[in-house]
Amino acid sequence: MGGMSALGSRLLQAIMVAVLIGTATFVMMRNLPGDAAWRIAAGRYGYDRVDASAADAVRSELGLDGPMLPALMQWLGDLLTFDLGTSLVTGQPVIEEVAHQLGASTLLAAVALVLSLLIGPPLGILAGLRPGSAFDRALLVASTGLKAMPQFLIALVLIVLVAVQLRWLPAAGHGEAHHFILPSVTLALGLAAVNARIARDATARIADMPYWRFAQWKGLSERQTLLRHGLRGVSVPLITYLGLQFVTLVEGVIIVESIFGWPGIGHALVHAIFSRDVPMVQGTALVLGLGFVLVNAAIDLALRRIDPRAAT
To answer: Distance (Å, rounded) from C-alpha 182 to C-alpha 261?
Structure first.
């Protein structure tokens, strides 16, 4: 019964997200300064080839001078049939373009998330088992510095050092395995810094509990106690934080994809904003917003399996 209630709540949340994001993006895009018809024409034909007549033709074709409310209501009505409209620049269905771009972004985000979980929690657990040690203090300094550093700065540092100076990896590109390394590491470092601190605090708290000391009193080694009794307790706050990390990941994807020329949904969103491609902006923003709802629903289900107290 609780599961059905949670599912209904997430479904209602998804509907509200769709309406709010669609409305907000439409209004903001319509109220941006400058000539939208000129930007759309430039996106279609290139900035070198666009002129006043091309902009006027686009304005007449798309009815950009028409009232906002009917256009918004039409978009919301089409959304009920899962129709996200057509790109004003390419003329292709938005849902097809978003699906293609989402695949590239999802793959990059998944690699970054796996890397962050391989780096952060193990280091955090080691520090949590020895609170106050030199390693614990060094991890605090490193994680605080990485968390405070903007992702675009991490990307630029990696490009200068690894791609330009050492020439080990390409600075941009897509399609080969080595193209994943720099953008995924850029995204993973900030996430790993937070994961490490969460794992460290959770481990230190669990290691100070009576059942941990009792397990060791029975003769279990520190490693056995951690594997049998500690990992589940450490995983609960880590999984809970994944929902918040998704927001950080989306923000990072938009920046990192633009820097590394990755053909994902973040890169497409930036170009759609510059080209005033309203349906593409609405579609990409909608997918990102619904992705947040989906991730939180998956986290709720995972927590119910790991920690039964979450279902009460």
So the answer is: 12
DSSP code, position 271: H
Give 3-state DSSP helix, strand, coil % of the chain, rounded to 5: 80, 0, 20
Q: Taking Cα atoms as reference points, which of 101, 118, 113 lies closest to residue 184?
A: 113
Q: What is the CA radius of gyration of the chain?
A: 24
For tokens 């995924």, the residue is 184
Euclidean distance between CA atoms 293 and 260, whole angstroms = 28
Q: Are 173 and 159 contacting, i.e. CB atoms less than 8 angstroms apart?
A: no
Query: Per the domain annotation, does 4 fall within a domain?
Result: no
Phi, psi of 191 (to 5 degrees): -65, -40
CA dihedral 104, 289, 194, 212 (to 10 degrees): -110
Q: With contact defined as beta carbons under 8 Å apart, do 147 and 153 qualify?
A: no
Helices and strands (DSSP H and E) totals, the chain: 13, 0
Separation of alpha carbons 142 and 224, rounded Å? 28
- Residues in a beta bridge with 86: 93
**Cα separation of 129 and 121, whole Å?**
12
Cα 155 vs. chain centroid, distance in angstroms? Answer: 16
In tens, the pLDDT along 79-131 reads 888 888 888 888 889 988 888 888 888 888 889 989 999 999 999 999 988 88
Q: Distance between CA 55 and CA 53 in Å, rounded?
A: 5
How many folded domains does the chain comprise? 2
Give the three-state DSSP class for 194.
helix
Residues 160 and 280 in one domain: yes
Residue 9 in domain: no
Burial environment of residue 43 by CB neighbours within 10 A (0 to 12, 13 to 18, 19 or more): buried
**Contact partners, residue 301, CB within 8 Å, separation at least 6:** none
Model confidence, pTM: 0.77
Are 193 and 258 within one domain?
yes
Comparing 5-19, 104-118, 159-173, the range with the smallest average pLDDT is 5-19
